[in-house]
């Protein structure tokens, strides 16, 4: 489902070139669950950003169900990302002046996929999926950190993505809440047969994945 070939990411800085990712090959089958672990600065986020179509590789390929992600042009690439990929990143990134339900509805509205009424109905279902029906009219600031993360998850599910990407989505939560959000993330991706790629520092969480990918200094190590 996901196939990365010889992915490379260099950053040009004042201090010279940073080789963040140095030739990664990674395959994750449809419905698979891969956890990416490694020390801070090892290149995990850089790798995930390339997989998610958010940061252009210096070299190499990302294929999602056979489609070469980085060979597409905008706006096709943007449409592909919004239809196929759901993002659950560390900082909640909810729009503060939108209610939970409107934050969740936003991807479908932006994609022009659903009208206002249908988007609201679908967003209500996604909020129910994450157990937040009673908070649909709350603004992000009125929600706890764990609840905010569940809204982000509901939003990521809105366009029924085939691929869910999560970059340390729970690192700032307490242990119990982290467990709950992660269990939910695993359950919803399993139910929807979505492929899940998770970056985490939590080795206990990573151990639950079907595939554990250890990155050190920009390369996969055994
Ligand atoms: N935009 C950037 N410009 C320059 N260097 C960068 C940039 N982003 C990341 N780097 C460098 O690339 C390397 C890999 O960074 P990356 O964020 O991918 O690591 P990470 O494994 O996600 O770390 P962490 O666990 O702390 O999130 C680091 O040396 C970092 O300093
Ligand atoms: Mg990171």
Average residue pLDDT:
93
User: Under the CATH scheme, which architecture of the domain at 31-47 and 84-221 would be assigned?
Assistant: 3-Layer(aba) Sandwich
Q: What is the CATH homology-level superfamily of the domain at 31-47 and 84-221?
A: P-loop containing nucleotide triphosphate hydrolases
Rg, nearest Å: 17 Å
Q: What is the string of SSEs from the N terminus onward? A: EEEHEEHEHHHEHEHEE
Bound ligands, each once:
adenosine-5'-triphosphate, magnesium ion
Task: Decide which structural class fits the backbone.
Answer: alpha/beta
> Strand share of the residues?
25-35%
Number of strands: 10
CATH class of the domain at 31-47 and 84-221: Alpha Beta
Helix fraction? Answer: 25-40%
What is the third-level CATH name, the topology of the domain at 31-47 and 84-221?
Rossmann fold
Low-confidence stretches at least 5 residues in length (pLDDT < 50)?
A: none
Q: Sheet bearing the most strands, described?
A: 6 strands, mixed
Strand line-up across the major sheet: 6-7-8-3-9-10
Distance between the termini: 22 Å
The general outline is globular
Query: What is the count of DSSP helices, taking H or I runs of 4+ residues?
Result: 7
Task: Please give a structural write-up.
With 222 residues, the protein is of the alpha/beta class. It contains seven helices and ten strands. The strands form two sheets. A six-stranded mixed β-sheet has the order 6-7-8-3-9-10, with helices on both faces. Strand 1 and strand 2 (16-28) form a beta hairpin. The longest helix is centred in the last third of the chain and has 17 residues, at 175-191. The model has no long low-confidence stretch (mean pLDDT 93). Bound molecules: adenosine-5'-triphosphate and magnesium ion. Magnesium ion binds at residues 44-45.
């Amino acid at each position: 489902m996901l196939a990365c070939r010889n992915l490379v990411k260099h950053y040009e800085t004042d201090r010279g070139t940073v080789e963040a990712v140095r030739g990664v090959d990674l395959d994750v089958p449809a419905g698979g669950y891969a956890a990416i672990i490694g020390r801070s600065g090892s290149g995990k986020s850089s790798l995930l950003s390339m997989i998610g179509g958010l940061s252009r590789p210096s070299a190499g390929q990302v294929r999602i169900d056979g489609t070469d992600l980085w060979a597409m042009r905008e706006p096709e690439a943007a449409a592909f990302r919004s239809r196929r990929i759901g993002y659950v990143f560390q900082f909640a990134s909810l729009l503060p002046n939108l209610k939970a339900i409107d934050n969740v509805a936003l991807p479908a509205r932006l994609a022009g996929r659903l009208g206002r009424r249908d988007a609201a109905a679908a967003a209500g279902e996604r909020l129910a999926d994450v157990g937040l029906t009673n908070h649909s009219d709350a603004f992000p600031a009125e929600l706890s950190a764990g609840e905010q993360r569940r809204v982000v998850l509901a939003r990521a599910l809105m366009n029924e993505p085939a691929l869910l990407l999560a970059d340390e989505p729970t690192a700032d939560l307490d242990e119990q809440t982290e467990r709950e959000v992660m269990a939910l993330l695993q359950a919803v991706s399993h139910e929807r047969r979505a492929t899940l790629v998770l970056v985490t520092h939590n080795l206990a969480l990573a151990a639950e994945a079907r595939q554990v990918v250890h990155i050190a200094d920009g390369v996969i190590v055994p």
